[in-house]
Amino acid sequence: MKKIDAHNHPGLSGWTYEEIIAQQDEAGIDKIFLLAIEATNTDEPGPLDIALERCLEYYERSPERFLLGCAPDPRIPGAIDRLELLVRDYGIKICGEVKIRMMYDNRDAIDMFRHCGELRLPVVLHMQEAAASPTHQKYPRPHMWYGGDIDTVERVLALCPETAIMAHSTAFWSFISNDDKGKTQNYPRGEVIPGGKIEKLLEKYPNLYCDCSGDSGLFALQRSPEYAKKLMLTYPEKFIFARDFYSNELSDFVDSLGLPEENLELFYHGNLERLIGEEL
Ligand SMILES: [Zn+2]
After folding, report:
1. Domains, the chain
2. What average pLDDT does this structure show over 123-129?
3. How far, in Å, is the centroid of ligand 1 from the Cα of 105?
4. Which of 56, 91, 124, 150 is the most exposed place for a label (fewest CB within 10 A)?
5. If you average pLDDT over every residue of the chain, what do you get?
6. pTM above 0.90, yes or no
7. Is there a contact between 80 and 111 (Cβ–Cβ < 8 Å)?
C-alpha cells in the first residue's frame, strides 16, 4: 500500500540522511514530507533540523523520496508573499509546521491561513499548552507553548472554513478524551471518556483533519484502541498518516485495529492527496 508520511523533519534526534533513507525503505514509505518552521522565536532544540535549507538539501539529494512543506512566520511583513514564493520556487505543498509562540487566531495568522485555503495548502498546527509545559526556569521562558489551546483550534476552524487545518500535538490530542487533563498534562493516560472535544470538532467543522504524528497522536490513539477504531471508522476521511520521528509505531498500531482496506488507503495517502489535489 502506498504510504505518505505527512509530517517529518530532517535529521531529528541525530538521525543521518542515510539512516532516514534506510528506515524509509524498511518501513515501506513512498514519500516523506519534510516540514520547515520559519519562526523567529522557536524553542526547537535543533534549529538546523527545521530549517528550509536542510529540507531542500535532502529533497535535492532524493526528489523522488521527499516532499516539502514550510510555514512562514505570519507576523513578518510579507508573510503571504513569502508563502507564494515558497509555492512557486520550491513547490511546497503544505503550510507547516506552524510551531510558533503566538495565538493562532491572531489576525495576521488568520490572513495567512485563509490564503492557504486559496492556494490549496493544508496547514499543520502544533498546539501546546503553557500550563502543561513548564520549563522550571525563568530564563529564557517559564513555559513552552505554541498556538494556544483546543478552543483556539476551534476559533481557527471557524475563521478559516475554506482551509484544511491539520491539527497536531499535545493540546489537540489530549482532548480525544472528554475531560480537561490536557490543560495541565501533555500526555494524559487512562481510558478515553467518549465525547471529547476532538469528536465534537470533527462533527462540527468539515475543515478539521487529524495529523496523527508524534507521541501525542500515537499515545492518544493507544489510550483506547476500540475508541480510536470507532473514530476512524466514523470519520475515515479525517485521519492522516504522519510520524514526526522515524519509527513504525503508528503504522503498527493502526494496522492492528483491523480497519477495512479502503479506510487504510485513505489514512496512508488518500486523504492527504485529496486535500492537496494531486497524486503524490
Ligand atoms: Zn513536527
Report:
1. 4-276 (3.20.20.140)
2. 97
3. 20
4. 91
5. 95
6. yes
7. yes
